Amino acid sequence: MGFSYLIPAGNPINHTKHKEIYFTTLLKNMKVLVATEKPFAKVAVDGIRQVVEKAGYELALLEKYTDKKQLLEAVADADALIIRSDIVDNAVLDAAKQLKIVVRAGAGFDNIDLEAATAHKVVAMNTPGQNSNAVAELALGLMVYAVRNLYNGTSGTELKGKKLGIHAFGNVGRNVARIAQGFGMDVYAYDAYCPDQVMIDAKVTPLHSAEELYRTCNVISLHIPATAETKQSINYALLSQMPQPALLVNTARKEVVNEDELIRLMQDRSDFRYVTDIMPAAHEKMNELFAGRYFATPKKMGAQTAEANINAGIAAANQIVDFFVNGNTRFQVNK
Ligand code: 3PG
Prior knowledge:
335 residues, alpha/beta, Rossmann fold, five-stranded parallel sheet, 16% strand, binds 3-phosphoglyceric acid
């Protein structure tokens, strides 16, 4: 992408842009804005404040905002921005005249317009792995909830001995595998970008296509990011290969599932259940049509634990300080 803020060790003034950032960090009281429509736990905000203030910077907070205008105003004088699933698009970047870095405290960064960030010379980062255990625990929680018939008092089934297919073996997928093995599940995974050996080392059976995974497993847990390639990719053709009874668990992104085709499939197959941490656009309709075999959390809850908030929030604050002080761009996603 043709730019980098990396400040060369020992000689921070070699390049014009580096020089500019370096002197800015020396001369200015940097302002770090935490803008979270869905706030962190207080203990995480306290930890972020400690890191930011220890570095000599100022912390500003915009929590539970309801109107994008509030975000546009708040970013006007921010040098750094910490967000969660908050949208950082061209309008936000235009309004953020001082902004040098935005850190998504979490894994998925589909809420940041990366090209616009690059065009505005803003470094975008995420904090991979920091909230993955929390999301994985919720995935298993949703699985138990589904196989126990949404705790409606009727006899359900157990997870032990069932075949679980993990679709994408990143940080969350690996934690799901670890926890599912504790339940005695037989764990399989498919990830085009992950070497077989990583799965084998985790005692997971690697499969080599999504079709093979869905054909093999009664339970599928989605852990793919929302990209041009994955959006709408979980469709009728794929889901219809799952053996009966089938359970799809989504703690990833709404956009990866083709909702219309999922609805059609659930109409065709009464054995098919869907539990999700990301409410579908067709939530009301699905609730009505598939009572007892469909559930969506009212708000995305996967990363909503004190531990995950602390891990991801403080990692974001540390990455900002490390960027300003040392030019560290290790977690940059818009290179
Ligand atoms: C992530 O991508 O890290 C998770 O989806 C959590 O998102 P959240 O911070 O908005 O809860």
